[in-house]
Specification:
The structure holds two protein chains of two kinds. By secondary structure, chain A is an alpha/beta fold. Chain A is built from eleven helices and nine strands. Helix content of chain A is 46%, strand content 15%. In chain A, strands 1-9-8-2-5-3-4 form a seven-stranded mixed beta sheet, with helices on both faces. In chain A, strands 6-7 form a two-stranded antiparallel ribbon. By secondary structure, chain B is mostly helical. Chain B has one domain (2-75): Non-ribosomal Peptide Synthetase Peptidyl Carrier Protein, Chain A. Helices cover 59% and strands 0% of the residues of chain B. Chain B is built from four helices and no strands. Chain B has helices at 2-15, 26-29, 32-45, 63-75. Chain B is globular, with a radius of gyration of 11 Å. The A-B interface holds A 185-186, 189-190, 192-193, 208, 221-223, 226-227, 229-231 and B 27, 32-33, 35-37, 39-40, 52-53, 55-56.
């Protein structure tokens, strides 16, 4: 499996200057050195070290820290400032480790949880669109998908100096499409058409669909829902969380794009009671994008409340609201 | 003609531009998000099934090519 980072040079297609090349090479070597040092540590010590580095970074990143604390207070006003501050540091440390784990994905063995219906979708090989979030280990969802399906696809935003040197995803059978590529969307459609399992993070702000998140209006990226509707593929929700011992757990759920099932059940009950009309079909009411997004965001909120110290709180999540 | 009108109207609404050049690149004119909205809207409005995999191939990049492609699917 290859890493699909075509058009690495991004939409601009500009040849990097010698100075930029040297900079990229130096940074790449630095990362490699750091990684080789980290890999010499035990998993537990590595986690603790990266967690602490994350917390130190947040101490100096005033703007990021303030935004995280503000977001936490906004979402959970019942917390005191001290509790919100502690949570911001814990979450940042955990997220630092979650991001760092992308560098050694081949060593991550997630435990996977899903219901029977979702398992069938994952094993069918016919593809699905997966709404995921920046929680725990960010790349554990496409990684878990790759355990079931041959065509696990995700969008990445890896800096150029890393894409040239390292294939984070190739070793674990994930096709990564560079977000900055001019053809990212076309590639995504092609992968969707080829029965790909497309995992897209959709818990950030985007000026697309209005949602209510922690009781407050904001907007969210709904591309994953549109993609599912357009490709007529199932829509799943998935997230990855760390356990206390550092083990990653990935959860998959199936989301309903239409209300057919609920209506079908009601319809069947009516039929049974009347014992008549044998060949009638239940009406199918397709949920619109806003309704599906509301469903996704309701679940996101529940999940974040369950694991508040594993979500990335520092995004400008309620921008313009 | 109805399809052409619908597509042009959609693009005008998204771009806030009353004069659309039909030879412009569709995805250069509207966002990928809006492109998906457009596809879904056309499918619903005209009771079509559009093979999305074809929608971004080389010969469908221009707005007029896209219109022609949708019209063909409507007729068939």
């Amino acid at each position: 499996m290859k890493v699909k980072l075509s058009n690495k040079s991004t939409a601009k297609a500009i040849t990097p200057s010698p100075r930029a090349l040297i900079k990229h090479k130096t940074m790449s070597l630095g990362i490699r050195f750091l990684l080789s040092t980290l890999m010499k540590l035990t998993k537990k010590r590595r986690k603790k070290l990266i967690n602490n580095i994350g917390k130190i970074i947040l101490r100096f990143a005033t703007k990021t820290r303030k935004r995280a604390i503000n977001n936490i207070v906004r979402a959970m006003p019942e917390l005191s400032i001290k509790e919100a501050t502690d949570l911001a540091f814990d979450a940042y440390g955990n997220c630092a480790y979650g991001v760092a784990e992308s560098f050694w994905l081949s060593q991550v063995e997630p435990d996977i949880f899903c219901d029977e219906e979702t398992l069938q979708i994952l094993q069918s090989g016919t593809g699905a669109c997966i709404a995921t979030m920046h929680l725990g280990c960010y790349e554990a969802v496409p990684l878990a998908v790759a355990k079931f399906a041959n065509n696990s696809v995700t969008l990445t935003n890896i800096p150029d100096f890393l894409t040239d040197e390292m294939d984070f995803y190739s070793a674990v059978n994930i096709t990564a499409i560079n977000k900055k590529s001019a053809h990212a969307f076309s590639q995504l459609l092609i992968q969707a058409g080829n029965n790909g399992y497309i995992s897209l993070h959709c818990d950030l702000y985007a000026n697309q669909t209005e949602v209510t998140f922690f009781g407050q209006k904001t907007k969210a990226p709904s591309g994953v829902v549109l993609l599912a509707k357009m490709t007529k593929k199932p829509l799943l929700l998935a997230y990855a969380v760390y356990q206390d011992d550092g083990q990653v757990q990935v959860f998959f759920e199936t989301l309903q794009l239409n209300q057919e099932i609920a209506i079908q059940n009601q319809f069947n009950n009516e039929l049974q009671s009347k014992q008549s009309i044998s060949q009638k079909t239940a009406p199918e009411i397709e949920q619109n994008v806003e309704q599906v997004m509301a469903q996704i965001y309701q679940r996101f909120e529940q999940i974040i409340r369950q694991y508040p110290s594993q979500w990335y709180w520092s995004y400008n999540r309620w921008k313009n609201y | 003609m109805l399809i052409q009108q619908s597509i042009i109207q959609f693009i005008e609404e998204k771009t806030h531009c009353p004069l659309i050049d039909l030879t412009d690149n569709l995805l250069g004119t509207i966002k990928s998000f809006d492109f998906m909205m457009l596809m879904l809207e056309l499918e619903q409005k005209f009771k079509l099934t559009l093979p999305f995999e074809q929608a971004l191939t080389a010969n469908l990049r221009q707005i007029d090519e896209f219109i022609f492609w949708v019209e063909q699917h409507h007729e068939s």
